[in-house]
Structure formats: C-alpha cells, structure tokens
Amino acid sequence: MGRKWNNIKEKKASKDANTSRVYAKFGLEIYVAAKKGEPDPESNQALKFVLERAKTYNVPRAIIDRAIEKAKGGSDENYVELRYEGFGPNGSMVIVDALTNNVNRTAPEVRSAFTKCGGSMGVSGSVSYMFTATAVFGVEGKTVDEVLELMMEADVDVRDIVEEDEAVIVYAEPNQFQAVQEAFKQAGITDFTVAEQTMLPQNYVTIPEESQAQFERLIDMLEDLEDVQQVYHNVEFDE
User: By the 8 A CB rule, do 30 and 64 touch?
Assistant: First the structure.
C-alpha cells in the first residue's frame, strides 16, 4: 500500500501555493462534473466528490461558484477524459489523466514532455496494470484504532488504516469513497487532510540521484500542461 501520502500532498501543495494553476484545473473539473448531471452536489455524486477534493486544496469559493454557474448557463464547451501512460527516466512509470476540448493538441504535448525528459509514451495498459485505483482519506486528531472502530461500526470495508506523520490515512476501494466519507461525517468529522481517488503504484522505485532532476522536470512539465488534471508515478524520493 502507498505510504507517505501526506508528504506527497505537502510537496504538491507547496508547489501550487503561489500559482493559480491548481485552481484553474479544479475549476474545469467542477464545470465538467456539473455539466454531466445536475449542478447540485446533493444529487450529483461526481460533483460532490470533486468539491470534497477541492476543499482539501483550499480552492476559493468564487472559483467553485463560477464553474457551477457556467455549467448552469448551458455552455457548449465539451471535454473528453483521456489517459496516457508512459515511462520516465530509468524505467519509472507515469500515468497522465487529462480533460481536453482538443484531442489533437493534448497527445502531442504529453508526448513532447516525455521525449524532452528522457522518457517515452506507452500504449494503453502498458503502465496502469502496475497501479491500483484507490480512495484515500486523511484525518487528524484520531488514532488508528479509533478510525478502525469508526469504520467497523459503519460496516465499511477498507484496505488499510495507517498513521503517517501526524495524520491517520484510510485506504479503500474507489467505490467505497462515499461510504468512508459518510462514516467520518456520522462521527462529526468533516475536515480532511486529503480526500482523493488516486492511482497508487503496487511497488515504488528509486532512481539514481543523477536522474532525479530529469524526472522532476518531466512531472513538472506534465502538470503544467493546460489539459492535464492528474499525474501519478511510482518514484519514491529519499526524505
């Protein structure tokens, strides 16, 4: 099971702190989710999920409201979800999820990032089989035993509950996201350090120090692409 989730999230949050990039990506994701169904999170589970994630990244309310209002307004912008898979330096594995209104733009941009950083694009399935789709929640102020008891009382199946730094992290099947969230809320817990559906590698790898900068550049280039929403990989760095 994946570890050091809080450290990963802290690094990402630190990188995004001085930019509007993460907010723009959430704005698009909220718009797409709202447009797919009712623009009301109580009746649109996809929208509710995105809003919960946005909360953990402190996305401003104005951005959320603007995206939902745009969906209500019947905008004719259409986006498709795409997944790209590839290999970075030293055989590292990378998954790239995108939302795009121009497929002909997205693929070349993703391929270019891989090529410029010593990597290569793979075919569908060449990397994802080594990752597991996972729901992840993090809470503070509770012990592992307390969270385990809470999940058992709610009759929610989880994969693992571990302590990471000063938080308790719950790993569960993706289809248990709402059940885990509801179990916490029934216990009066509504603030999470993380509330995500992610792709966790089955095994982490380390890469030589001389290749780390190149790998980090690859991830930065991919995350900076307008159409890219999420980037997952199997590289673990020494702390």
Answer: yes
The residue type found at 167 is A
- In the chain, what are the domains? 5-72 (1.10.10.200), 80-129+202-233 (3.30.70.980), 132-201 (3.30.70.980)
Cα Rg, the chain, nearest whole Å: 18
Indicate the pTM of the whole model.
Answer: 0.88
Per-residue pLDDT tens for 86-137?
999 888 999 999 999 999 999 999 999 999 999 999 999 999 999 999 999 9
The CA distances from residue 223 to 78, 98, 128, 161, in Å, are 21, 10, 18, 29
